[in-house]
Design goal:
Elements lengths: L5 H9 L4 H8 L3 H12 L1 E4 L3 H11 L2 H4 L4 E4 L19 H19 L9 E5 L3 E3 L5 E3 L2 H23 L10 E7 L8 H5 L7 E6 L2 H8 L21 E5 L22 E5 L2 E2 L8 H7 L6 E5 L2 E3 L10 H11 L5 E4 L5 E6 L3 E4 L2 H5 L3 H20 L1
Parallel strand pairs: 1-2, 2-3, 3-6, 6-7, 7-8, 8-9, 9-11, 10-12, 11-13, 12-14
Antiparallel strand pairs: 4-5, 14-15
Helix pairs in contact: 1-3, 2-3, 4-6, 6-7, 11-13
């Protein structure tokens, strides 16, 4: 191996993707170590366990390894179905509580240390209501601990971004932040988000737990707070924003977006997000239109227009599409899900849900909505061509 050209060894290293194989290759000799190290430590995955968090922290605190880290992913799980456990399903012992508290402290310390990663570009946080015990078993987590762990880790990430931006030789910082399965707590819990006045983010993706899931979990229709609490302060860096609620509708009538404008925003993705029954200045519709000069791509998947009551006026999708078509003249791509955007009501026992009776009660509503969407998409396609 010592006589092989360095280019050939590099080619071999670049074609090895398995981490275990890379670590073994790294142990062959000093040349392989130097060539394999960037590939081994480019992406660090942190599981929801004390052991994994401690291992990651050790890497972050080793300068020669920390400089290689470009991406950190927390608790990635392939083909894992998200499910909240009720309090009655979780048997919490005193031993579990001590272990969970240790885990939370360890995770907080690990993610606070992201500021030591001078070349870090991307962070993905996946929150699942289970933890891996010291014995290696996966256990359901009490709702309190699940919500508290989210706050601890998100706070730690923002703390690290703040530290990085105020260091004597600040780096570019985290450019992409993805947060999945967020149970939105009261807005005051996220005051630290707006304390970061110099956000380095160019891409932000927020995936929240649906109102219906939180209602079934907690018994409260009002638990999902305003997603505006997680939005960065207005800045010129943010170019891409994704707001999703994959498992069902998200709606909070107190969400006020009037203070949020991102002069460089080009991509906006909305999934299962409910539009207001009117178009207030601080509503979602106006938020889209405030970015008409820069927005180039708009994705709207399975969203709904909120119907306040059977006698209240309906904010028809045909009117929304028509307005967007008229004002978003710079848009080059519009993506709409296979499921038509419909209408939602506040059900007394189930919270915000889709309601097909709205379309049934208004003649030609479905046809008008589909026609205006087709016209909107057609106009965008003409501009893109």
């Amino acid at each position: 191996m010592n006589n092989l050209p360095i280019e050939l060894i590099q080619s071999v290293v670049d074609n090895v993707s398995d981490t275990v194989d890379l670590l073994q290759l790294r142990a062959v000799n000093s040349t392989c170590r130097d060539l394999a190290t960037p590939n081994v430590f480019r992406k660090i995955c942190v599981r929801n366990s004390v052991k994994s968090a401690q291992s990651a922290l050790q890497i972050f605190m080793t300068p020669s390894l920390a400089s290689e880290v470009r991406e950190v992913v927390y608790d990635h799980r392939d083909n894992h179905v998200f499910r909240l456990f009720s309090s009655s399903e979780v048997e919490v012992t005193d031993c579990d509580e001590i272990e969970i508290a240790d885990l939370e402290e360890c995770l907080g310390e690990t993610f606070c240390s992201l500021s030591s990663l001078s070349n870090l570009e991307s962070v993905t946080l996946n929150f699942w209501p289970t933890f891996v015990s010291q014995t290696g078993l996966e256990k359901p987590e009490h709702p309190f601990w699940f919500a508290n762990r989210q706050l601890t880790i998100i706070h730690a990430v923002f703390h690290s971004m703040m530290n990085a931006s105020s260091s004597p030789s600040p780096s570019m910082g985290i450019q992409s932040l993805t947060m999945n399965n967020i149970a939105l707590m009261p807005s005051a819990c996220y005051d630290f988000v707006h304390s970061l006045t110099n956000s380095p983010l160019t891409h932000l993706s927020i995936s929240v737990i649906s109102n219906a899931d939180l209602w079934a979990w907690s018994g409260s229709k009002a638990l999902n707070s305003s997603l505006a609490a997680l939005l960065p302060v207005p800045n010129t860096r943010l170019t891409s924003l994704e707001i999703r609620s994959p498992t069902g509708l998200y709606h909070n009538p107190s969400t006020q977006l009037g203070a949020y404008t991102y002069p460089s925003l080009e991509n906006l993705v909305l999934e299962n997000i409910t539009f207001d029954h009117v178009a207030p200045e601080d509503g979602l519709e106006e938020f889209i239109l405030r970015h008409k000069n820069t927005l180039r791509r708009l994705e709207v998947r399975s969203c709904a227009s909120y119907v306040q009551s059977a006698t209240a006026p309906i904010r028809k999708w045909s009117a929304i599409w028509e307005r967007l078509e008229k004002e978003l003249t710079g848009l080059k791509e519009i993506a709409v899900g296979s499921e038509d955007c419909g209408y939602a009501i506040l059900h007394p026992s189930e919270g915000y849900i889709r309601d097909s009776t709205v379309t049934a009660s208004v003649p030609s509503l479905v046809e008008d909505d589909a026609r205006m969407l087709k016209e909107f998409c057609g106009r965008v396609n003409v501009i893109a061509a």
